[in-house]
Design goal:
Blueprint (H helix, E strand, L loop, with lengths): L1 H14 L8 H10 L4 E7 L4 H4 L7 E7 L5 E7 H5 L2 H10 L12 H17 L7 E6 L4 E7 L3 E3 L10 H16 L12 E4 L4 E3 L11 H19 L1 H12 L1 H6 L11 H50 L5 H6 L2 H29 L4 H12 L15 H21 L4 H7 L2 H23 L8 H14 L5 H15 L4 H32 L9 H19 L1 H26 L2 H27 L7 H17 L8 H12 L4 H17 L2 H13 L4
Helix pairs in contact: 7-8, 7-9, 8-9, 9-14, 11-13, 11-22, 13-22, 17-18, 17-23, 17-26, 18-19, 18-27, 19-20, 20-22, 20-23, 20-24, 21-22, 23-24, 23-26, 24-25, 25-26
Length: 690
C-alpha cells in the first residue's frame, strides 16, 4: 500500500493533475442556488500561509458582495486543499500520544459537516464566532461554507501597544466559553483571532477543533494561547490575563503541555527563529568581549613598554650582584602577569555570556505561572509516541542487524574458535580494556578543574552502555558533559571542555589518518610517494573547501557554526594552555587511545593467523571509526563492521579471516563492555554523578 501511494503521488507530482478548483462563476452560481444574489467575489489572500498554518487548516476564502445587504464571507474547500498536508497529519497522528485527531484524509462532506458542527457548537457555547448561514456543494470536487462577514482585524495585524489587558481577557473569555462545553479550537494563533473596532474578540478557523474533547487537548489550547500572547506582549502580561479569567488552577494544569510539540506549527517556527536570534546575540556578546579584552591588553602593553624604557634608564647604575639576585624574578613575574591577564579575559567572556543569556519564552511563562501557583506541575507531559531520531535509529538498526546476520551466516564458528590463537585474543582484550584509561586521560586533559581519575574511568566504561542505545557521536558527548557537571564543573565549562576534547580528537584523527595513509603508499615503493587514495582524499577535500568558500550561503553556514564552536571552546582552551601538563595529558590520551584500538584490531587479525601491515590496519580502523561516528545506528552498528571488513579485504586480508577478525574486534570493544558499562552507569546514577 505504501509503495502504491508513493508511486501514485510521485506520478501525479511529475505529470500534473487536472485543476479541480471551482471557478468564480461556479462559486457565484452556488451562492445563487442557496438564495443569495452575489455581485462579485474577491479572494482574501493569507500571508505566509505555508509557514503560518498547519497543512489543511485553511480553505480558500472569499469576500462576496451582494445586491442588497452586507457582504458575506465564503470558505471553499476542494479536494486539492483537503489533501494538502496529508503526510504531515499522518505523521502527527503516529507520533503524538493521548491526542484525538480527526481522520487523516476526510471526504469533502465529512470536512463540511465537521466545520459546520464546530461553528454551531461554538455559537451555542456562547463564544463569539462568525455565524454560519449556509452550506452547499460546488460540484463533485468542492464544498462551500457561508458566514456572516465581520469587519475586524486579525490579532497579527494589530500593533503591540493595542494588545491591552482588556483585549487579552476578552480573548480568554471566548476560550473559557468553549472549554465550559468541552470544545477545543486547536489553533489559537494570531490570524485565528479577530478584533473589531469596539474591542470584541471573535474566534475563527474552527475547522481543526474537536467537541467532547479530553483534558489534555483542552490544556493544550490554554498553553497555545498563552504562548501566542507571550510572543507579542511578554510572559508576565500573558499569564496575568489568563489567570484573571481562568483562575490559577486551570493555568497551572496547562504547564505540562507547555512544550513545542504541543504547539501549532506556526508557533514552533517562531520559537525556533527566536532561539536562533538569542544564540546569535550570545555569540556576538562573547566575540565583542574577547575583542575588547584584546584591545585593552594591547593598550596596556603599549604603556608597559614606555614604562619599561624609563625604568631601564633609572637602573643603569645597579650592581652586578643585584642583577644576579633578581635575574629569575622578572621572568616569574611575567608568567604570573600573563596568567592573570588570561584569567581576567576568561572572566570577562564568562560575564559577557551570562549577561547576554536570555531565557526562552516557554521558560519565562513557566516561571510566571509558578509565581502564582508554586506547587504547579512543571514536568512536561510525554506527548510524543515516537521521536524522529528513534525511528531513524530503529530503521538503521534493522539494516545493521540484516548486515550482521548475512555476515554471520558465512562464518563457521566452530572452525573460528578452534583456529584462533588465544594468546593474541587475550592481548586484544587487554588493549581494549586499556582504552578506557586513555579515554579518561583524553577528557581530563581539557578540564582544568580537579576531577577524580578513577571516577572518570568508570564514566568512560559507562559510555560503553550509553553508545549502544544512542548514536556513537551523541551518547558519549552527552554522558561526559553530564558527568563533568555533576563533578562540580560549571555547565558552560563542562560543555566547552567536551567540545575542546572532541575538536582535538578530530584533529588528531585526521592527522593520524593522513600519516598512516602516507605510510601505506611508501611500503611498496622506494620513494616517499603517497598513495593514490591519500592524493584523491586531499583533492576531494580541496574541492569541497573551494565549493564552500565559493557559495555565500554555505560560507555563512560554515562560518556561523565555526564561530559558535570557537566562542565556547577557545576561552576554555586558555585555561588548559596555562597548564602544559594538562594539555600533554589530553593530547597524549587521544593518541594513546587511537593506538590501543589499532593494536586491538591488529591482534584480532593476528589471532587468525594473518600478519598485516600495522599502517594498513591503522588506516582501516581510522576510516571505519570515522564512518561509525557519522552513522545514526547505536555504536555505529553495521556501518563499522562493513567498513572494517571492506578495508581489510582491500589491504589483502582474506575474507575468511577479515570477517571473524572484525567480529572479534567488535565483540571486545562493543558487546562485552556492555555489561560492565551498565553496572557503571547504574552505579554513577545511584551516586548522583551523572
Amino acid at each position: 500500500m505504501l509503495i502504491g501511494w508513493s508511486v501514485a503521488y510521485g506520478t501525479l507530482y511529475a505529470v500534473g493533475t487536472p485543476n479541480v478548483r471551482p471557478t468564480g462563476q461556479t462559486l457565484l452560481a452556488g451562492l445563487r442556488r442557496v438564495g443569495f444574489h452575489p455581485v462579485g467575489a474577491k479572494r482574501v489572500e493569507d500571508a505566509d500561509v505555508f509557514e503560518a498554518t498547519e497543512p489543511g487548516d485553511h480553505g480558500r476564502r472569499y469576500l462576496v458582495t451582494l445586491e442588497n445587504g452586507p457582504p458575506i464571507d465564503v470558505t471553499v474547500v476542494d479536494r486539492e486543499q483537503q489533501a494538502h498536508g496529508f503526510f504531515y497529519r499522518v505523521w502527527r497522528r503516529l507520533t503524538l500520544r493521548g491526542i484525538i485527531h480527526s481522520r487523516s484524509l476526510q471526504s469533502l462532506r465529512q470536512a463540511l459537516e465537521q466545520e459546520a458542527l464546530l461553528a454551531y457548537a461554538a455559537t451555542a457555547a456562547g463564544a463569539n464566532a462568525p455565524r454560519l448561514v449556509a452550506t452547499s456543494e460546488l460540484g463533485p470536487d468542492a464544498v462551500m461554507l457561508v458566514y456572516e462577514h465581520i469587519d475586524a482585524r486579525t490579532l497579527d495585524s494589530l500593533p503591540d501597544e493595542e494588545i491591552t489587558g482588556t483585549l487579552m481577557r476578552a480573548a480568554w473569555r471566548q476560550v473559557e466559553a468553549l472549554q465550559s462545553r468541552r470544545i477545543t479550537h486547536r489553533r489559537l494563533v494570531g490570524d485565528a483571532l479577530l478584533v473589531d473596532s469596539s474591542g470584541t474578540v471573535f474566534l475563527t478557523d474552527m475547522r481543526g477543533g474537536e467537541i467532547a474533547a479530553g483534558d489534555v487537548v483542552l490544556r493544550m489550547d490554554i498553553a497555545q494561547l498563552m504562548t501566542t500572547f507571550g510572543l507579542r506582549v511578554g510572559a508576565e502580561r500573558a499569564v496575568a490575563a489568563a489567570v484573571d479569567v481562568l483562575g490559577p488552577d486551570a493555568v497551572a494544569d496547562s504547564l505540562p503541555m507547555l512544550q513545542p510539540i504541543a504547539l501549532s506549527r506556526r508557533t514552533r517556527h517562531t520559537l525556533r527563529r527566536l532561539a536562533k536570534e538569542r544564540a546569535q546575540r550570545e555569540r556576538e556578546a562573547v566575540i565583542e568581549a574577547s575583542r575588547a579584552g584584546k584591545e585593552a591588553k594591547g593598550a596596556a602593553g603599549t604603556g608597559t613598554e614606555t614604562g619599561t624604557g624609563t625604568s631601564a634608564a633609572r637602573s643603569a647604575d645597579a650592581s652586578g650582584t643585584a642583577h644576579a639576585h633578581v635575574r629569575g624574578g622578572p621572568a616569574k613575574a611575567d608568567r604570573k602577569s600573563l596568567r592573570a591577564e588570561k584569567n581576567a579575559e576568561k572572566r570577562a567572556i564568562d560575564d559577557a555570556l551570562e549577561e547576554a543569556r536570555e531565557e526562552d519564552l516557554l521558560a519565562q511563562i513557566r516561571k510566571q505561572v509558578l509565581l502564582v501557583r508554586p506547587q504547579a506541575p512543571i514536568e512536561p507531559a510525554r506527548l510524543e509516541r515516537v521521536k524522529p531520531r528513534t525511528l531513524v535509529t530503529f530503521i538503521a538498526g534493522a539494516l545493521a542487524a540484516y548486515f550482521l546476520l548475512s555476515q554471520l551466516t558465512q562464518v563457521q564458528f566452530g572452525q573460528v574458535v578452534g583456529e584462533a590463537n588465544w594468546a593474541w585474543v587475550g592481548g586484544a582484550a587487554l588493549f581494549s580494556a586499556c582504552t578506557y584509561f586513555a579515554a579518561a586521560m583524553a577528557l581530563l586533559g581539557f578540564v582544568p578543574e580537579k576531577v577524580p581519575f578513577l571516577r572518570t574511568v568508570v564514566a568512560q566504561v559507562a559510555g560503553s552502555f550509553v553508545k549502544l542505545v544512542a548514536p556513537a557521536a551523541v551518547g558519549g558527548v552527552a554522558l561526559n558533559a553530564r558527568f563533568l557537571q555533576r563533578s562540580g564543573v560549571r555547565p558552560g565549562h563542562a560543555v566547552a571542555s567536551v567540545g575542546a576534547s572532541q575538536l582535538f580528537g578530530l584533529g588528531s584523527h585526521i592527522t593520524l589518518l593522513l600519516f598512516f595513509g602516507y605510510l601505506t603508499g611508501t611500503e611498496h615503493t622506494p620513494t616517499l610517494s603517497p598513495s593514490r587514495g591519500v592524493i584523491a582524499g586531499l583533492l576531494a577535500a580541496a574541492v569541497l573547501v573551494l565549493i564552500v568558500t565559493a557559495i555565500p550561503a554555505l560560507r555563512r553556514f560554515v562560518s556561523t557554526r565555526l564561530r559558535s564552536l570557537f566562542a565556547g571552546v577557545v576561552p576554555r582552551m586558555l585555561d588548559v594552555v596555562q597548564r602544559p601538563r594538562k594539555l600533554v595529558t589530553g593530547i597524549g590520551g587521544m593518541l594513546l587511545m587511537t593506538l590501543l584500538f589499532v593494536m586491538c584490531l591488529d591482534a584480532c587479525v593476528r589471532a587468525f593467523g594473518h600478519d598485516a601491515s600495522y599502517a594498513s590496519i591503522a588506516v582501516v580502523f581510522l576510516a571505519g571509526n570515522a564512518l561509525g561516528s557519522a552513522a545514526p545506528t547505536p555504536g555505529g552498528l553495521g556501518a563499522v563492521e562493513a567498513a572494517l571488513i571492506a578495508g581489510l579485504i582491500t589491504f589483502g586480508v582474506p575474507k575468511e579471516i577479515a570477517t571473524p577478525a572484525v567480529l572479534l574486534f567488535r565483540l571486545l570493544t562493543l558487546w562485552l563492555p556492555v555489561g560492565p558499562g551498565w553496572l557503571s552507569f547504574s552505579h554513577l546514577t545511584r551516586k548522583g554523578e551523572i
